[in-house]
Amino acid sequence: MVEAVQGAGVVVTGAGGGIGAALARRFAGEGARVVVNDLDAGRAQAVAEEIGGIAVPGDASAIVGEAREALGGTVDVYCANAGVAFEGGDAAAPLDEKVWAASWDVNVMAHVRAAHELLPDWLERGSGRFVSTVSAAGLLTMIGAAPYAVTKHGAYAFAEWLSLTYRHRGVKVHAICPQGVRTDMLAATGSAGDLVLQPTAIEPDDVADALFKGIEEDRFLILPHPEVAGFHQARATDPDRWLTNMNHIQQKWETTR
Predict the structure, then answer these.
(1) 4, 14, 40 from 188: Cα distances, Å
(2) pLDDT tens digits for 199-229?
(3) How far apart are CA 84 and CA 176, in angstroms?
(4) CATH number at residue 187
(5) CA nearest to 70, candidates 144, 10, 125, 22
(6) Using CA atoms in the order 18, 22, 28, 29, what is the torsion angle rounded to 10 degrees?
(7) Whether residue 148 lies in the annotated active site
(8) Which of 78, 148, 156, 166 is catalytic?
(9) How many Å is the Cα radius of gyration of the chain?
(10) 134-169: per-residue pLDDT in tens?
(11) Domain span holding position 186
């Protein structure tokens, strides 16, 4: 058992399946009281019943108050896990601003809104934990999915900012950055996901395991795929070489579409 989460009030957004459901199950198994959030009320209820949690369906941007009430007045851990991914994003193609707006709203602004609601209480009592499911795309990029790649960079930047701003005041922040995970979202990435993510895809439970190891070690950056650290280092130290290598993958993808 991880002492830091035993008895804690935990909220997991996007927890009707995939990584969110795996996180909800793991927190419940560690003795936490879990609010399961999902846009799909039926899926949220099913996971909540399975783990003995509380279903609070709805838009992840607007459920902090209801979740707090469901947990008896206090949220100790907030997992900003809900996300959207859209295939496409060719800058030369017609611009779909609705796709960009949805990506910003769910992948970034939902995190900002949640933190805005949570921080006053956390800072007053000197404790709180914010878990952001980002993606390796937030450290690297993703071919064929400009809105996803760009907004995941935003999600990572916001988590990083939260950590550097409030860590001395008791707020813990974790950014989870996996590559491919066998979920419905991976299936929706289409041929780009098949090429880049499927070969090394892991299970949602592996992501939960990586998070709890990171919690025990008090680490900000959680890499369920350890090789991402090397890719991130290569990107930082020789960006032109990294971009050339990624362009080769882009060209290979273009020939397989």
Answers:
(1) 35, 16, 17
(2) 888 999 999 999 999 999 999 999 999 999 9
(3) 16
(4) 3.40.50.720
(5) 10
(6) 150
(7) yes
(8) 148
(9) 18
(10) 999 999 999 988 999 999 999 999 999 999 999 999
(11) 3-256
